[in-house]
Amino acid sequence: MTVSSKMNSVSRQSVLSRLGPGGLFYAANKILAVVGKDEERWRSKNEGALFKRWKRATSVEAKAPAAAPTPAPAQPSDLLKFLAINALELSAPASDALLKSRSSEWFQLSGHPGSLAPAGPGTVWKRRAAGDHPAHNPERDAYEALAACPHMRSAIPRYYRELEYGGENFIELQDLLHGFRDPYVMDVKMGTRTFLEEEVSNARARHDLYEKMVRLDPNAPTEAEHAARAVTKLRYMQFREHCSSSAEQGFRIEAVKVPGQPPLTDLQKVREPEKLTATIAHFLGNDERVRLAITTRLREIRSMFEKSEFFRQHEIVGSSIFIIYDNERVGAWLIDFGKTRRVPDDIKITHREPWQQGNHEEGFLYGLDRLINTIEKAKLPEAAEPDVSR
Protein backbone atom coordinates (compact mmCIF):
# COMPACT_ATOMS: atom_id res chain seq x y z
CA MET A 1 0.00 0.00 0.00
CA THR A 2 2.91 2.31 0.58
CA VAL A 3 6.52 2.56 -0.46
CA SER A 4 7.61 2.81 3.15
CA SER A 5 9.15 -0.62 3.08
CA LYS A 6 11.52 0.63 0.40
CA MET A 7 12.62 3.75 2.24
CA ASN A 8 14.75 3.86 5.34
CA SER A 9 14.02 6.18 8.22
CA VAL A 10 16.69 8.65 7.09
CA SER A 11 15.15 9.15 3.65
CA ARG A 12 11.64 9.45 5.15
CA GLN A 13 12.81 12.11 7.55
CA SER A 14 14.57 13.94 4.74
CA VAL A 15 11.40 14.12 2.67
CA LEU A 16 9.24 15.19 5.59
CA SER A 17 11.70 17.82 6.77
CA ARG A 18 11.63 19.48 3.37
CA LEU A 19 7.87 19.85 3.69
CA GLY A 20 8.31 21.96 6.83
CA PRO A 21 5.95 22.28 9.82
CA GLY A 22 2.43 21.17 9.04
CA GLY A 23 3.55 19.67 5.74
CA LEU A 24 1.89 16.31 6.42
CA PHE A 25 -1.56 17.81 6.87
CA TYR A 26 -1.07 20.11 3.87
CA ALA A 27 0.09 17.26 1.70
CA ALA A 28 -2.88 15.13 2.70
CA ASN A 29 -5.27 17.84 1.59
CA LYS A 30 -3.44 18.50 -1.67
CA ILE A 31 -2.82 14.94 -2.76
CA LEU A 32 -5.75 15.01 -5.22
CA ALA A 33 -3.31 16.65 -7.63
CA VAL A 34 -1.89 13.18 -8.31
CA VAL A 35 -5.09 11.19 -7.93
CA GLY A 36 -4.28 9.14 -11.02
CA LYS A 37 -1.36 7.44 -9.28
CA ASP A 38 -3.18 6.98 -6.00
CA GLU A 39 -6.13 5.25 -7.66
CA GLU A 40 -3.83 2.51 -8.91
CA ARG A 41 -3.55 1.25 -5.32
CA TRP A 42 -7.03 -0.23 -5.53
CA ARG A 43 -7.59 -0.62 -9.26
CA SER A 44 -6.56 -3.90 -10.88
CA LYS A 45 -7.41 -6.07 -13.85
CA ASN A 46 -10.19 -7.77 -11.88
CA GLU A 47 -11.63 -4.53 -10.53
CA GLY A 48 -12.34 -2.67 -13.75
CA ALA A 49 -15.96 -2.20 -12.70
CA LEU A 50 -14.99 -0.07 -9.73
CA PHE A 51 -15.45 3.14 -11.71
CA LYS A 52 -17.52 3.70 -14.83
CA ARG A 53 -16.04 6.60 -16.75
CA TRP A 54 -17.52 8.84 -19.37
CA LYS A 55 -17.21 12.32 -20.82
CA ARG A 56 -20.45 14.22 -20.60
CA ALA A 57 -21.80 15.08 -24.03
CA THR A 58 -23.72 18.18 -25.01
CA SER A 59 -26.64 16.06 -26.21
CA VAL A 60 -28.33 12.90 -25.02
CA GLU A 61 -27.79 11.36 -28.48
CA ALA A 62 -24.04 11.09 -27.89
CA LYS A 63 -23.52 7.45 -26.98
CA ALA A 64 -19.84 6.54 -26.97
CA PRO A 65 -17.90 7.45 -23.84
CA ALA A 66 -14.65 9.27 -24.39
CA ALA A 67 -11.39 8.18 -22.88
CA ALA A 68 -10.64 9.32 -19.35
CA PRO A 69 -8.90 12.71 -19.28
CA THR A 70 -5.15 12.62 -18.81
CA PRO A 71 -4.09 14.31 -15.56
CA ALA A 72 -1.93 17.36 -15.92
CA PRO A 73 1.76 16.66 -15.26
CA ALA A 74 2.47 16.96 -11.57
CA GLN A 75 4.81 19.68 -10.44
CA PRO A 76 7.89 18.70 -8.41
CA SER A 77 6.27 20.03 -5.23
CA ASP A 78 3.22 17.81 -5.81
CA LEU A 79 5.44 14.79 -6.31
CA LEU A 80 7.30 15.64 -3.13
CA LYS A 81 4.06 15.76 -1.16
CA PHE A 82 2.96 12.48 -2.70
CA LEU A 83 6.20 10.79 -1.72
CA ALA A 84 6.01 12.22 1.78
CA ILE A 85 2.57 10.73 2.36
CA ASN A 86 3.46 7.35 0.88
CA ALA A 87 6.71 7.22 2.84
CA LEU A 88 4.82 7.22 6.13
CA GLU A 89 4.61 3.98 8.06
CA LEU A 90 0.86 3.28 7.99
CA SER A 91 1.27 1.12 11.07
CA ALA A 92 1.86 4.39 12.91
CA PRO A 93 -1.17 6.49 13.87
CA ALA A 94 -2.32 9.33 11.66
CA SER A 95 -1.69 12.84 12.89
CA ASP A 96 -4.10 14.38 15.39
CA ALA A 97 -4.97 17.05 12.84
CA LEU A 98 -6.14 14.39 10.41
CA LEU A 99 -8.03 12.42 13.02
CA LYS A 100 -9.90 15.48 14.27
CA SER A 101 -10.93 16.62 10.79
CA ARG A 102 -14.56 16.04 9.86
CA SER A 103 -14.65 18.08 6.68
CA SER A 104 -15.31 15.27 4.20
CA GLU A 105 -18.92 15.06 3.05
CA TRP A 106 -18.82 11.28 3.19
CA PHE A 107 -18.53 11.46 6.97
CA GLN A 108 -21.65 13.62 7.12
CA LEU A 109 -23.72 11.46 4.78
CA SER A 110 -22.73 8.02 5.95
CA GLY A 111 -24.88 8.20 9.08
CA HIS A 112 -22.06 7.70 11.56
CA PRO A 113 -21.03 11.13 12.87
CA GLY A 114 -17.86 10.88 14.92
CA SER A 115 -17.05 7.31 13.85
CA LEU A 116 -14.97 8.13 10.75
CA ALA A 117 -11.70 10.01 10.40
CA PRO A 118 -9.40 10.68 7.44
CA ALA A 119 -6.19 8.68 7.69
CA GLY A 120 -4.33 9.93 4.64
CA PRO A 121 -4.80 10.26 0.89
CA GLY A 122 -7.55 7.92 -0.20
CA THR A 123 -8.22 6.16 3.11
CA VAL A 124 -10.37 6.61 6.22
CA TRP A 125 -10.46 5.00 9.64
CA LYS A 126 -13.78 3.71 10.94
CA ARG A 127 -14.19 3.21 14.67
CA ARG A 128 -15.34 -0.19 15.91
CA ALA A 129 -18.97 -0.20 16.97
CA ALA A 130 -19.60 0.38 20.66
CA GLY A 131 -20.08 -2.87 22.51
CA ASP A 132 -18.12 -5.02 20.07
CA HIS A 133 -15.48 -7.12 21.77
CA PRO A 134 -12.00 -7.11 20.17
CA ALA A 135 -12.43 -10.81 19.42
CA HIS A 136 -15.90 -10.19 17.95
CA ASN A 137 -15.83 -7.47 15.32
CA PRO A 138 -18.55 -8.28 12.74
CA GLU A 139 -17.64 -5.38 10.44
CA ARG A 140 -13.97 -6.30 10.31
CA ASP A 141 -14.84 -9.95 9.73
CA ALA A 142 -17.27 -9.04 6.94
CA TYR A 143 -14.80 -6.80 5.13
CA GLU A 144 -12.03 -9.41 5.39
CA ALA A 145 -14.31 -12.14 4.03
CA LEU A 146 -15.69 -9.97 1.23
CA ALA A 147 -12.22 -8.74 0.26
CA ALA A 148 -11.26 -12.40 -0.25
CA CYS A 149 -14.44 -13.18 -2.22
CA PRO A 150 -13.88 -13.01 -6.01
CA HIS A 151 -17.52 -12.12 -6.55
CA MET A 152 -17.67 -9.24 -4.06
CA ARG A 153 -14.29 -7.54 -3.65
CA SER A 154 -15.07 -4.90 -6.30
CA ALA A 155 -18.47 -4.14 -4.73
CA ILE A 156 -17.07 -2.86 -1.41
CA PRO A 157 -14.54 -0.20 -0.36
CA ARG A 158 -11.01 -1.62 -0.36
CA TYR A 159 -10.26 -3.00 3.11
CA TYR A 160 -6.70 -2.50 4.36
CA ARG A 161 -6.36 -3.52 7.98
CA GLU A 162 -7.50 -3.28 11.61
CA LEU A 163 -5.51 -1.06 13.98
CA GLU A 164 -5.54 0.50 17.43
CA TYR A 165 -5.05 4.19 18.16
CA GLY A 166 -5.52 6.05 21.43
CA GLY A 167 -7.00 2.98 23.09
CA GLU A 168 -9.67 2.56 20.39
CA ASN A 169 -9.91 0.10 17.51
CA PHE A 170 -10.41 1.09 13.89
CA ILE A 171 -10.50 -0.48 10.47
CA GLU A 172 -8.87 1.31 7.56
CA LEU A 173 -10.92 1.56 4.37
CA GLN A 174 -10.78 3.21 0.98
CA ASP A 175 -12.20 6.74 1.02
CA LEU A 176 -14.90 6.43 -1.61
CA LEU A 177 -14.99 10.17 -2.30
CA HIS A 178 -11.29 10.31 -3.09
CA GLY A 179 -10.72 11.38 -6.69
CA PHE A 180 -14.24 12.66 -7.34
CA ARG A 181 -14.65 16.35 -8.03
CA ASP A 182 -17.69 18.16 -6.60
CA PRO A 183 -19.72 14.92 -6.67
CA TYR A 184 -23.37 14.02 -6.30
CA VAL A 185 -23.76 11.60 -3.37
CA MET A 186 -26.62 9.41 -2.16
CA ASP A 187 -26.66 7.04 0.83
CA VAL A 188 -29.40 4.36 0.67
CA LYS A 189 -30.12 2.09 3.64
CA MET A 190 -31.07 -1.37 2.41
CA GLY A 191 -33.54 -3.96 3.68
CA THR A 192 -37.05 -4.30 5.06
CA ARG A 193 -35.52 -4.92 8.50
CA THR A 194 -32.66 -2.76 9.80
CA PHE A 195 -32.52 -4.21 13.33
CA LEU A 196 -31.06 -7.50 14.51
CA GLU A 197 -33.33 -10.28 15.75
CA GLU A 198 -31.35 -10.32 18.99
CA GLU A 199 -32.21 -6.65 19.53
CA VAL A 200 -35.92 -7.43 19.78
CA SER A 201 -35.80 -10.77 21.62
CA ASN A 202 -36.88 -9.18 24.91
CA ALA A 203 -40.68 -9.10 25.02
CA ARG A 204 -40.85 -6.71 27.99
CA ALA A 205 -42.96 -3.61 27.25
CA ARG A 206 -41.10 -0.36 27.83
CA HIS A 207 -42.43 3.06 28.81
CA ASP A 208 -39.56 4.95 27.15
CA LEU A 209 -40.29 3.38 23.76
CA TYR A 210 -43.97 4.24 24.12
CA GLU A 211 -43.05 7.87 24.72
CA LYS A 212 -40.82 7.87 21.64
CA MET A 213 -43.60 6.38 19.55
CA VAL A 214 -46.15 8.95 20.73
CA ARG A 215 -43.78 11.80 19.93
CA LEU A 216 -43.47 10.53 16.37
CA ASP A 217 -47.14 9.64 15.90
CA PRO A 218 -49.70 10.03 18.73
CA ASN A 219 -52.11 7.71 16.89
CA ALA A 220 -49.64 4.85 16.40
CA PRO A 221 -50.14 2.95 19.70
CA THR A 222 -53.09 0.59 20.04
CA GLU A 223 -55.71 1.09 22.75
CA ALA A 224 -53.99 -1.55 24.87
CA GLU A 225 -50.61 0.15 24.40
CA HIS A 226 -52.13 3.52 25.33
CA ALA A 227 -53.60 1.97 28.46
CA ALA A 228 -50.30 0.35 29.45
CA ARG A 229 -48.25 3.35 28.22
CA ALA A 230 -45.65 0.84 27.08
CA VAL A 231 -44.61 -1.01 23.91
CA THR A 232 -42.11 -3.78 23.22
CA LYS A 233 -38.83 -3.18 21.40
CA LEU A 234 -40.06 -5.27 18.47
CA ARG A 235 -43.25 -3.24 18.18
CA TYR A 236 -41.31 0.04 18.29
CA MET A 237 -38.70 -1.05 15.73
CA GLN A 238 -41.33 -2.27 13.30
CA PHE A 239 -43.20 1.00 13.77
CA ARG A 240 -40.01 2.88 12.85
CA GLU A 241 -39.55 0.78 9.70
CA HIS A 242 -43.10 1.64 8.63
CA CYS A 243 -42.43 5.36 9.19
CA SER A 244 -39.90 5.17 6.35
CA SER A 245 -39.96 3.35 3.02
CA SER A 246 -37.99 0.42 4.46
CA ALA A 247 -40.94 -1.84 5.33
CA GLU A 248 -42.74 -1.45 1.98
CA GLN A 249 -39.93 -0.79 -0.49
CA GLY A 250 -36.96 -2.50 1.14
CA PHE A 251 -34.83 0.63 1.04
CA ARG A 252 -34.84 4.15 2.37
CA ILE A 253 -32.87 7.21 1.32
CA GLU A 254 -30.70 8.34 4.22
CA ALA A 255 -29.16 11.42 2.63
CA VAL A 256 -28.53 13.21 -0.66
CA LYS A 257 -25.91 15.80 -1.56
CA VAL A 258 -25.84 17.68 -4.86
CA PRO A 259 -23.24 20.33 -5.72
CA GLY A 260 -24.05 23.85 -4.62
CA GLN A 261 -26.74 22.79 -2.13
CA PRO A 262 -26.62 21.74 1.52
CA PRO A 263 -27.01 18.01 2.22
CA LEU A 264 -30.54 16.64 2.60
CA THR A 265 -30.29 14.44 5.68
CA ASP A 266 -33.89 14.34 6.91
CA LEU A 267 -35.26 12.02 4.22
CA GLN A 268 -36.00 8.98 6.36
CA LYS A 269 -39.74 9.72 6.35
CA VAL A 270 -39.94 9.94 2.56
CA ARG A 271 -41.85 6.72 1.98
CA GLU A 272 -44.45 7.27 -0.77
CA PRO A 273 -43.25 5.81 -4.10
CA GLU A 274 -43.82 9.08 -5.97
CA LYS A 275 -41.74 11.04 -3.45
CA LEU A 276 -38.96 8.47 -3.54
CA THR A 277 -38.95 8.74 -7.32
CA ALA A 278 -38.89 12.55 -7.16
CA THR A 279 -36.00 12.55 -4.68
CA ILE A 280 -33.95 10.22 -6.88
CA ALA A 281 -34.81 12.28 -9.97
CA HIS A 282 -33.48 15.33 -8.16
CA PHE A 283 -30.27 13.42 -7.47
CA LEU A 284 -29.94 12.28 -11.10
CA GLY A 285 -30.85 15.64 -12.62
CA ASN A 286 -32.33 13.93 -15.71
CA ASP A 287 -28.87 12.84 -16.84
CA GLU A 288 -29.60 9.70 -18.84
CA ARG A 289 -25.97 8.63 -18.92
CA VAL A 290 -25.78 8.77 -15.14
CA ARG A 291 -29.01 6.80 -14.83
CA LEU A 292 -27.74 4.09 -17.20
CA ALA A 293 -24.34 3.86 -15.49
CA ILE A 294 -25.86 3.62 -11.99
CA THR A 295 -28.47 1.00 -12.91
CA THR A 296 -25.81 -1.03 -14.73
CA ARG A 297 -23.58 -0.90 -11.66
CA LEU A 298 -26.43 -1.85 -9.30
CA ARG A 299 -27.30 -4.84 -11.50
CA GLU A 300 -23.65 -5.89 -11.31
CA ILE A 301 -23.76 -5.67 -7.52
CA ARG A 302 -26.99 -7.68 -7.44
CA SER A 303 -25.48 -10.38 -9.65
CA MET A 304 -22.32 -10.54 -7.52
CA PHE A 305 -24.42 -10.69 -4.34
CA GLU A 306 -26.46 -13.61 -5.68
CA LYS A 307 -23.31 -15.56 -6.58
CA SER A 308 -21.56 -14.95 -3.27
CA GLU A 309 -21.28 -17.79 -0.78
CA PHE A 310 -20.81 -15.21 1.97
CA PHE A 311 -24.28 -13.74 1.41
CA ARG A 312 -25.85 -17.17 1.29
CA GLN A 313 -24.58 -17.67 4.83
CA HIS A 314 -25.16 -14.21 6.34
CA GLU A 315 -27.97 -11.78 7.04
CA ILE A 316 -27.02 -8.25 5.93
CA VAL A 317 -28.80 -5.93 8.35
CA GLY A 318 -28.48 -2.14 8.27
CA SER A 319 -26.06 -2.01 5.33
CA SER A 320 -26.17 0.75 2.74
CA ILE A 321 -25.45 1.31 -0.91
CA PHE A 322 -23.33 4.42 -1.41
CA ILE A 323 -23.72 6.05 -4.84
CA ILE A 324 -21.42 8.79 -6.17
CA TYR A 325 -20.98 10.49 -9.53
CA ASP A 326 -19.37 13.56 -11.03
CA ASN A 327 -18.73 14.81 -14.58
CA GLU A 328 -16.47 11.90 -15.45
CA ARG A 329 -17.27 8.84 -13.38
CA VAL A 330 -19.86 6.99 -11.33
CA GLY A 331 -19.49 4.47 -8.55
CA ALA A 332 -21.67 2.46 -6.20
CA TRP A 333 -20.55 0.30 -3.28
CA LEU A 334 -21.94 -1.72 -0.39
CA ILE A 335 -20.93 -0.23 2.97
CA ASP A 336 -21.67 -0.70 6.69
CA PHE A 337 -21.48 -4.31 7.90
CA GLY A 338 -21.61 -3.78 11.65
CA LYS A 339 -24.85 -5.78 11.89
CA THR A 340 -23.89 -8.58 9.52
CA ARG A 341 -24.35 -11.97 11.19
CA ARG A 342 -23.86 -15.58 10.10
CA VAL A 343 -27.14 -17.50 10.06
CA PRO A 344 -27.52 -21.01 11.53
CA ASP A 345 -26.44 -23.78 9.15
CA ASP A 346 -29.99 -25.12 8.87
CA ILE A 347 -31.38 -21.73 7.76
CA LYS A 348 -31.51 -20.83 4.07
CA ILE A 349 -32.23 -17.18 3.32
CA THR A 350 -33.22 -15.61 0.02
CA HIS A 351 -32.83 -11.93 1.05
CA ARG A 352 -36.24 -11.38 -0.58
CA GLU A 353 -38.81 -13.21 1.56
CA PRO A 354 -40.81 -11.40 4.30
CA TRP A 355 -39.24 -11.48 7.75
CA GLN A 356 -40.62 -13.58 10.58
CA GLN A 357 -38.86 -14.01 13.92
CA GLY A 358 -36.27 -16.72 13.44
CA ASN A 359 -36.07 -16.90 9.63
CA HIS A 360 -33.29 -14.22 9.43
CA GLU A 361 -34.66 -12.69 6.22
CA GLU A 362 -33.77 -8.99 5.95
CA GLY A 363 -35.06 -8.08 2.47
CA PHE A 364 -31.77 -6.77 1.05
CA LEU A 365 -32.33 -8.08 -2.50
CA TYR A 366 -36.03 -7.24 -2.30
CA GLY A 367 -34.99 -3.64 -1.70
CA LEU A 368 -32.27 -3.67 -4.36
CA ASP A 369 -34.79 -4.87 -6.96
CA ARG A 370 -37.04 -1.93 -6.09
CA LEU A 371 -34.22 0.58 -5.92
CA ILE A 372 -33.14 -0.32 -9.45
CA ASN A 373 -36.74 -0.07 -10.65
CA THR A 374 -37.20 3.33 -8.98
CA ILE A 375 -34.01 4.72 -10.54
CA GLU A 376 -35.15 3.49 -13.94
CA LYS A 377 -38.45 5.39 -13.55
CA ALA A 378 -37.08 8.55 -11.93
CA LYS A 379 -37.39 11.56 -14.20
CA LEU A 380 -37.82 15.23 -13.41
CA PRO A 381 -40.74 17.10 -14.99
CA GLU A 382 -39.62 19.60 -17.60
CA ALA A 383 -38.53 22.89 -15.99
CA ALA A 384 -39.70 21.79 -12.55
CA GLU A 385 -38.16 20.87 -9.22
CA PRO A 386 -39.29 17.74 -7.39
CA ASP A 387 -41.67 17.99 -4.45
CA VAL A 388 -39.93 16.17 -1.62
CA SER A 389 -41.88 17.89 1.15
CA ARG A 390 -43.24 15.69 3.90
TrEMBL record:
Q: Which Pfam families match?
A: IPK
GO biological processes? inositol phosphate biosynthetic process; phosphatidylinositol phosphate biosynthetic process
Indicate the enzyme's highest-level EC class.
transferase
What's one GO MF term for it?
Answer: inositol hexakisphosphate kinase activity
The coiled-coil regions, if any, are: none
Q: Which GO terms describe its cellular component?
A: cytoplasm; nucleus
Q: InterPro entries this protein is in? A: IPK, IPK_sf
Q: What is its EC number?
A: 2.7.-.-
Q: Which domain of life is it from?
A: Eukaryota
The alphabetical list of record keywords is: Kinase, Transferase
As for family, the record states: Belongs to the inositol phosphokinase (IPK) family.
Designated name of the protein: Kinase
Which gene name belongs to this protein? LOC112053123
